[in-house]
């Protein structure tokens, strides 16, 4: 028998996106009956999409031997199949619309009864999200199939429903033709991962409606029109609108507008004789006018993040509490905007954005990035066969989400190249909803969009765009159009690992050019999957940890939150950068300058406190009266008369903080939204550099002040009896993801090339003179003629030891240095650090705004930042002094002359560099202490620009001075 090739493609390999589904419509709750079909379903996983169904759709089918699986969930996170991560690459041959024969396919079954009072009449089965393609049977009858993983699908089911024993059977394919449209940078995870419900649809009910609530900023009045096919009436009692007809524009008089800063919602009801739908109305008008994106007549600054849905145990199947936590964490970190990268989120998240106030770019579930790897050959965006599938995606998003005031821009999708289908999506959207501008980044000419959007654009180029001085593009009409548009960075500041550096510099650009209206940091959360070792140790997996053949490693861990939603130092920095009020104390003139940086809200609700600290301890504090400032307003406030700083009192700092004066929906009373500080007087508490102790040679030992040295090599052995491993010049750091620069210029590769990870020291000379021990060495790597000449000059008095480290490059260095300082070993029991300097969090030259000068305490273990892939972290900067103590309080004090950076960990830099996950790091019997003059900046070259020149650490003559004293 000859085998025949299948002529008619199966539905999962067809360009046709769906069959049998209802037209897209708004998502809303109403008083009509509904049945929650989430819960425990029967489940089996088959290896191929063409596996016979075996009659599983038949109500009589026996599924008692099947597994159970929760809905909503991804089957890979419940022990069926495995997660896989790729960024751009399709995990299958690019052979559209075909997908591999090995195509995991999940069959789901659920039997349900209708409640006794279930009404007669139309009923709809609604799936909020199924990844990636599914066919549905109810009571043995096939309803149809659908694609569009992050989009709702509805089927009419009234004719098939019975009171008892309804059998719902769903077959879900991991891969389908639609997978070509869903190449987002995320885990490939499948299944029914959003809610499933049965909705009764009253015959005279409301199938769909579109709320248009405009705000005229010149008159302060609102208009309300609710478009619907139903015989409906709208009531918003607060506006005096009672049973007003739909499809009519109502002038509702003065209203409080909606904004992300003041998210005023009016609660109303849209009703027919058969159904009542609660509606939440936010009056706002979005436009692009005079080259700026405005809401209610005011230009916006988008202080945004890109949010993928993520939970370390549940993947993209998010519960309501997690969504709420995201919204609250954003608000508490001064974030005002979200791009729903790269698909419409669970609809509840948009309710939260309406409620708490976040500007939203709602993005279509579309990305065809993998085609870039073949020169965009065959890209669906420019292939008419994919036209309906792409347009349907847009339609389903716009219709679902059109009633959310928080949604101010529609985005066509992400990284899908260029083509007619995108233009068609834009044209349809513009006609359907003229009230929202359109975003798409992937077409550099921007001919059919309303904002000019780019990603990872270096600072210099953003500046040029801000000045309308970007290079011209080929088509003069397109060029002129793009030049007339406001500019947003839909992605910037890649928050992968340590960093991102350079945030403050972006903010300064946003503030100095009207055209630059902010951007969205990439990205909100690391998509790490929680795993547990047999002993219970938790860690988070990334690409490759599930044995994937093709994967993109830890590129999936590039968020401002760790997977468990602990804020990373990058988020703390972002919160500081985006403070809604800017506070600049000027102790010399006895004033504080306060500026309201918000676009809509005044400063009522904030209260201001000041404090004067001496060497980190509060000396006096009080309340500061600040008038309520309008958006953009500035004031100079007189400080109360500050007490004189005693000469010997150390440094005096003036701190001013703005906190919430009462609980608000997203944070408790006392939540700090902004702070500023300035040196108010005094001088470093450090005693003058000691000198005067004579080096004394003894039996195999050289003594200098409190320290002993090896008399030949000059290597330090003890300080007041504390055994140390001698300080050695160190230039190496475990490269950060941003040093590695997967998508940029890798400075880490250069560092390794010149051997900074394998430096050796050649002793040149040890000389002992009257009051100093001088050791000279040359530090260099095998196979390289580059070196660093090092002079350690040790001096001291009876109880302090001073090191002056002088370095000089030998040869011409091709790149900045990772760090410059010394590494030494301390006994493991000195595990608590108290320091006076910037903190409490880590800081590097280009990510240090959130670190404030003060007195901080952490254990060595707490100094570590658990980036999913271990790398340089935990540096503390501008340290005046640091005390490393054992439990009994004894230990070692290190002083800077004037300041130094430090990091301390229980493993070496090399171990940190080698480890792939934090739990692989094992504590050694010593503390590795790094005392540095400086680090190179961090930048965000893991996917974007590197370290700005002003934050680079150049190989040049440097001097670091440190004093060591015992703590008794
Ligand atoms: C962008 C893309 C994102 C993500 C990011 C890197 O190009 O739009 O989805 O991949 O790069 O993390």
What does this structure look like?
One of its GO terms (cellular component) is beta-galactosidase complex. Belongs to the glycosyl hydrolase 2 family. Residues 1-23 are annotated as: Disordered. By secondary structure, the protein is mainly β. The protein folds into 5 domains: 11-200, Galactose-binding domain-like (Jelly Rolls); 209-287, Immunoglobulin-like; 296-575, TIM Barrel (Alpha-Beta Barrel), CATH 3.20.20; 579-681, Immunoglobulins (Immunoglobulin-like); 696-967, Beta-galactosidase, Chain A, domain 5. 11% of the residues lie in helices and 36% in strands. The protein has 11 helices and 58 strands. The strands form 13 sheets. Strands 47, 48, 49, 50, 51, 52, 53, 54, 55, 56, 57 and 58 form a 12-stranded antiparallel beta sheet that branches. An 8-stranded parallel beta sheet has the order 29-28-27-26-25-32-31-30. Helix 1 (320-332) packs parallel to helix 2 and helix 3 runs parallel beside helix 4 (420-432). The longest helix is centred in the middle third of the chain and has 15 residues, at 387-401. Residues 1-5 have low confidence and may be disordered.
Spell out the key features of this protein.
single chain; mainly beta; Jelly Rolls; Immunoglobulin-like; TIM Barrel; 5 domains; 11 helices; 58 strands; disordered N terminus; binds beta-D-galactopyranose; Galactose-bd-like_sf; Beta-galactosidase; Glyco_hydro_2_cat; hydrolase
């Amino acid at each position: 028998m000859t085998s025949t090739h299948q002529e008619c493609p199966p539905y999962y390999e067809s360009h046709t996106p769906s069959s049998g589904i209802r037209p897209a419509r708004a998502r809303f709750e109403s008083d009509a009956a509904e049945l929650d079909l989430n819960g425990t379903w029967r489940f089996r996983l088959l290896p191929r999409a063409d596996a016979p169904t075996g009659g599983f759709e038949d109500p009589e089918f026996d599924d008692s031997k099947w597994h159970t699986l929760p809905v909503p969930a991804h089957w890979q996170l419940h022990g069926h199949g495995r997660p896989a991560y790729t960024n751009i690459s399709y995990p299958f041959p690019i052979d559209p619309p075909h997908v591999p024969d090995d195509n995991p396919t999940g069959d789901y079954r659920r039997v349900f009864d209708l409640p006794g009072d279930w009404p007669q009449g139309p009923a709809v089965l609604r799936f909020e999200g199924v990844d990636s393609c599914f066919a549905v049977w109810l009571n043995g009858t096939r309803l149809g199939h659908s694609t569009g993983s992050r989009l709702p699908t509805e089927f009419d089911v009234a004719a098939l429903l019975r009171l008892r024993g309804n059998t719902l059977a769903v077959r879900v394919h991991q891969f389908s033709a639609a997978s070509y449209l869903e190449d987002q940078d995320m885990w490939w995870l499948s299944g029914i991962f959003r809610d499933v419900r049965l909705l009764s649809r009253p015959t005279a009910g409301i199938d769909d409606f579109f709320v248009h609530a405009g705000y005229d900023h010149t008159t302060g009045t609102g208009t309300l029109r609710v478009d619907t096919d139903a015989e409906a009436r709208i009531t918003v009692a607060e506006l005096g609108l009672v049973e007003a007809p739909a499809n009519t524009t109502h002038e509702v008089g003065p209203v409080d507008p909606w904004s992300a800063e003041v998210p005023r919602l009016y609660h109303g009801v849209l009703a027919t004789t058969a159904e009542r739908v609660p509606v939440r109305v936010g009056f706002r008008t979005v436009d692009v006018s005079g080259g700026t994106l405005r809401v209610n007549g005011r230009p916006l600054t988008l202080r945004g993040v890109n949010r993928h849905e993520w939970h370390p145990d549940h993947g993209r199947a998010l519960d309501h509490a997690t969504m709420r936590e995201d919204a609250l964490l954003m608000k508490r970190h001064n974030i005002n905007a979200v791009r729903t990268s790269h698909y419409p989120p669970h609809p509840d998240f948009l309710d939260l954005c309406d409620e708490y106030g976040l500007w939203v770019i709602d993005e279509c579930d579309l990305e065809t990035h993998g085609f870039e790897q073949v020169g965009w050959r065959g890209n669906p965006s420019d292939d008419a066969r994919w036209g309906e599938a792409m347009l349907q995606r847009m339609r389903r998003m716009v219709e679902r989400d059109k009633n959310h005031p928080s949604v101010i821009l529609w985005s066509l999708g992400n990284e899908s190249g260029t083509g007619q289908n995108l233009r068609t999506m834009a044209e349809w959207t513009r006609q359907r909803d003229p009230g929202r501008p359109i975003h798409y980044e992937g077409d550099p000419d921007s001919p059919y969009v309303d904002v000019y959007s780019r990603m990872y654009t270096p600072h210099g180029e953003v500046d040029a765009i801000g000045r309308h001085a970007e290079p011209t593009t080929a088509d003069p009409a397109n060029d002129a159009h793009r030049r007339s548009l406001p500019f947003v960075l839909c992605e910037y500041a890649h928050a992968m690992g340590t960093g991102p550096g350079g945030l403050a510099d972006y903010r300064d650009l946003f503030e100095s050019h009207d055209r630059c209206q902010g951007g969205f940091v990439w990205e909100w959360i690391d998509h790490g999957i929680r795993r547990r070792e047999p002993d219970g140790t938790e860690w988070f997996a990334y690409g490759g940890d599930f044995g994937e053949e093709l994967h993109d490693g830890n590129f999936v861990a590039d968020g401002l939150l760790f997977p468990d939603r602990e804020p990373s130092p990058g988020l703390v920095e972002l919160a500081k950068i985006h403070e809604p009020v800017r506070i600049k104390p000027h102790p010399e003139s006895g004033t504080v300058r306060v500026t309201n940086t918000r676009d809509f809200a005044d400063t009522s609700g904030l209260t201001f406190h000041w404090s004067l600290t001496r060497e980190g301890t509060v000396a006096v504090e009080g309340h500061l009266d600040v008038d309520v400032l309008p958006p953009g307003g500035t004031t100079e406030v007189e400080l109360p008369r500050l007490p004189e700083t005693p000469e010997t009192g150390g440094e005096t700092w003036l701190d001013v903080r703005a906190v919430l004066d009462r609980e608000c929906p997203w944070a408790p009373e006392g939540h700090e939204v902004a702070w500023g500080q300035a040196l108010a007087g005094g001088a470093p508490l450090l005693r003058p550099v000691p000198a005067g102790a004579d080096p004394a040679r003894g039996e195999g030992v050289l003594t200098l002040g409190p320290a002993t040295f090896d008399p030949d090599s000059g290597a330090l052995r003890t300080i007041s009896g504390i055994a140390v491993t001698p300080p050695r010049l160190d230039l190496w750091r475990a490269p950060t993801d941003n040093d590695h620069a997967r998508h940029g210029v890798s400075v880490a590769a250069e560092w390794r090339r010149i051997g900074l990870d394998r430096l050796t020291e050649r002793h040149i000379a040890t000389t002992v003179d009257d009051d100093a021990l001088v050791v000279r060495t040359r530090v260099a790597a095998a196979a390289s003629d580059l070196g660093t000449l090092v002079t350690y000059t040790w001096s001291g008095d009876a109880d302090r030891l001073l090191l002056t480290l002088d370095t000089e490059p030998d040869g011409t260095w091709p790149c900045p240095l990772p760090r410059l300082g010394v590494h030494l070993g301390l006994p493991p029991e000195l595990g608590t650090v108290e320091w006076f300097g910037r903190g409490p969090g880590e800081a590097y030259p280009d990510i240090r705004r959130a670190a404030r000068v003060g007195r901080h305490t952490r254990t060595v273990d707490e100094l570590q930042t658990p980036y999913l892939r271990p790398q340089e972290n935990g540096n503390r900067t501008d340290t005046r002094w640091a005390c490393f103590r054992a439990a009994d309080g004894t230990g070692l004090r290190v002083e800077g002359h004037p300041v130094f950076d430090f990091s301390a960990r229980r493993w070496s830099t090399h171990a940190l560099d080698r480890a792939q996950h934090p739990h692989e790091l094992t504590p050694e019997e010593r503390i590795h202490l790094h005392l540095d003059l400086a680090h190179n900046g961090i930048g965000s070259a893991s996917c974007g620009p590197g370290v700005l020149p002003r934050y680079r650490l150049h190989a040049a003559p440097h001097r670091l001075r440190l004093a060591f004293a015992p703590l008794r």
